[in-house]
Amino acid sequence: METSVVSTDLVDARVGPLGSLENLSQGEIDKLLDTSQTGLYALFRNCALAVLNAGSDNDNAKEIFERYRDFDVQIVRHAWGIKLEITNAPAVAFVDGQMIRGIKEHLFAVLRDIIYTANEIIGAGRLDSRDPASITNAVFHIVRNAHVLDNKSRPNLAVCWGGHSIADAEYQYAKRVGYELGLRAADICTGCGPGAMKAPMKGAGVGHAKQRITNGRFIGVTEPGIIAAEPPNAIVNQLLIMPDIEKRLEAFLRLAHGVIVFPGGVGTAEEILYLLGVLLEPANAEQPLPVVLTGPATSAAYFDQISRFIQGTLGTAALSRLKVIIDDPAEVARHMVGSFEQVRAYRREHSDSYNFNWLLRVPYELQQPFAVTHESMRSLELHRAQPVHRLAANLRRAFSGIVTGNVKENGVAAIERQGPYELVGDADVMRLLDELLTAFVAPRRMTRPGSAYRPCYRLVA
Hints:
MCP/YpsA-like, 7-stranded parallel β-sheet, 17 helices, 15 strands, 15% strand
């Protein structure tokens, strides 16, 4: 790899792939470098910059892209394959002039998934957005192409959700839970970013080391809209870039043998509501997917607030699908690993795959990408006069919109131009939503420590 230092903050480099994508067709290269609306350059550039900027304290995508507005990445063809020519890259991605190996792997994972999705899923006509089965098949093909399904072990994958901006006590607790899971040979899948996404991976790595497990999986699942705010942490050894948030969430649940939720903010609430929207679908009534909400004693009030919101909006049946364990990492791990056997028995009885849950029915409204605009946010049906799984889906969209307004480049820009999004619904639903969001703002769950939060939403009853 050739490198040159532009400044103390910027580096130029020419980087070759690690074991894959040594060759690209001329058509693939042309599409990657196409700066028109139909090309992939903007998508590839922004995702590449996000990966190279891992470790930054800034979660505002608009500010990140502005700071590195002179960043550029080009594809150079050689007789033996291709290389990436990078200019004005964040220096944090390099040590002694060499790109960190894990970051290089992540960089080429981005290239792999963007090319595959564009050519083999969208370009090949595999994705019919009107057909739920087609959407699930697209998720499967992207996951399989990334070799995430190569593992043939018994069910052992804990999907861990939680905030990227959490207090140190919550971070340390999530790490201890990961450690207990690692001692019990569980693998970890998260949203790949910092905070509660990194902590369980870090803890599990130590647990694996003590048990001399050398093939542990640390799967990170992200999507282009969030990757700049939550860049892949260094522990991720299998990075997966899904096309949008809905396919990212479906991938989580298709891969999961159990779900652990740590404290977080609106993004975590979005994930919980997506999960409940799936579990409350009548066809999934018998699905044995264990879900644990957990945190240190200092976070008990957070889960009380989440529980009150779920009880008040979705009812007792929704709350019964969740188990809350406070301040007991070992019990979380014992419960989760013990439940893996129920998952295994169910999959065997119904002849379903251990590593991709085909039997889970994801409601069509949860599969459809939600285009966040001021109009679409105001049009959300946030009332109780609808099936409970549909209310969960609409509440999930409301939280997705708030995430967009908080950290995604297009959302931040839209709020700056037009002001806050408006959410309209039943008075009781709006009251519960206001209480929950207010509870997120006070302990700075909406933004990184040290920065003030300006609401991107307004509630209207």
